[in-house]
Amino acid sequence: MAINRILIANRGEIALRIHRAAHEMGIETVAVHSTADAEAMHVRLADHAVCIGPPAAADSYLNTAAIISAAEVTGADAIHPGYGFMSENAQFAEIVEAHGITWIGPKPEHIRTMGDKVQAKKTAGALGLPLVPGSDGAVSDFDEMKRVAAEIGYPVLAKAAAGGGGRGMKVIPSEDQMEPLVKQAMSEAKAAFGDDTMYLEKYLGNPRHIEFQVFGDGNGNAIHLGERDCSLQRRHQKVLEEAPSPVITPEERDRMGGIVAKAMADMGYRGAGTIEFLWEDGKFYFIEMNTRLQVEHPVTEAITGMDLVREQIRIADGKPLSVTQEDLRFTGHAIECRINAEDPFTFAPSPGKVTAYHPAGGMHVRVDSGLYAGYSIPPYYDSMIAKLIVYGRTREGCIMRLKRALEEMVVEGVKTSIPLHAELIRQPDILSGDYSIKWLEDYLAKRNAE
């Protein structure tokens, strides 16, 4: 089995990232695109391009029949879904495999299991991962919810089983507020996901968001590639990520990394995955697993020297892991800033024509972006237009390089989040590494109040 031509079922910077890895491996690429993305950089660079529908994602990037047809018409023998869109759609993965096309991703049954939060929690617990105290699966009865909440102690968090992006989620401070707040969360979940199944867990006061990158070969071998700290978030969306975390000791990394790698090996996991935890007072609590490549994967690449997309392709092609755990060394520090086309402080979207573009450069500075001068950013998709990734031998050196890179980067014609990042990395708490998942929202609230 050998992969010769990959259809990239995505758009934007990740589509370009996959194209680059494929070409470096001597593999041809097929870009699929909506009419809104006809002039996108990955479409221009791919060996073949197929228009799969109008701008709306539901009619293009989420259109299974159009994507499979494009693969068949162009003779693609593999499909890479990137992140978002089809990347965690188990049914799509099954359809790809049923057509004799290689799926560059985890086994469909693992995508399905980990995509259901209740099932994921049960599976994680069975695999030995530490859990946030909470309900044993879904709860639908208010008396039962109150009993569970009394057992684990208020405040508790009501979460949608099918949820994501902070929707269908409410903090319940006390028993008398249980019913009205859970009803709100259920109606949000029903509207967003068509499923109002809820579960409860202990609400942690001031945690950090720590995630471990894992890779499995599908045959019972797995490794971890260290952790990333993704605690700088707004509305449960990550804004800046760094690796390693400023608060995790090498001993904690080895211990927890060993636990997640063993869990993935026991599961027979295939490809790239991320195990996400909340961390507070030295304790890890599993929250979810993402069965795909993450937006923030470049910081892991920077500190390990490994190309994660190349590894995904190799494993999908039936090859073993290219490194052992003993081979891996974590060196230096890396930070990624997500650059969005939006007002840096009100976060209002700012699509439109890029009149000038100059990416930052220099030693250990990487920009993942499909931007170019004259490109029109469409209003139909996620607002992220670039990722600025900077590496340094130390965290302090990395931050100094990042300050310089942000000063150097130019995107004109639209508003971007560059000024927000430039401001954030001058804050004492960020410089010292003393921040939690609540830090950014508190900072922005104070800033807007002044």
UniProtKB/TrEMBL annotation:
Biotin carboxylation domain: residues covered: 2-445
Catalytic activity, EC: 6.3.4.14
Pathway annotation: Lipid metabolism; malonyl-CoA biosynthesis; malonyl-CoA from acetyl-CoA: step 1/1
The ATP-grasp domain, residue ranges: 121-317
Origin: domain of life: Bacteria
Gene3D superfamilies named among the record's database cross-references: ATP-grasp fold, B domain
GO terms assigned for molecular function: ATP binding; biotin carboxylase activity; metal ion binding
InterPro entries linked to this entry: ACC_Biotin_Carboxylase, Acetyl_CoA_COase_biotin_COase, ATP-grasp, BC-like_N, Biotin_carboxylation_dom, Biotin_COase_C, CPAse_ATP-bd, PreATP-grasp_dom_sf
An individual GO BP term: fatty acid biosynthetic process
Keywords: ATP-binding, Biotin, Fatty acid biosynthesis, Fatty acid metabolism, Ligase, Lipid biosynthesis, Lipid metabolism, Magnesium, Metal-binding, Nucleotide-binding
Catalytic reaction annotation: N(6)-biotinyl-L-lysyl-[protein] + hydrogencarbonate + ATP = N(6)-carboxybiotinyl-L-lysyl-[protein] + ADP + phosphate + H(+)
Biological role stated in the UniProt entry: This protein is a component of the acetyl coenzyme A carboxylase complex; first, biotin carboxylase catalyzes the carboxylation of the carrier protein and then the transcarboxylase transfers the carboxyl group to form malonyl-CoA.
Assembly description: Acetyl-CoA carboxylase is a heterohexamer of biotin carboxyl carrier protein, biotin carboxylase and the two subunits of carboxyl transferase in a 2:2 complex.
Annotated protein name in UniProt: Biotin carboxylase
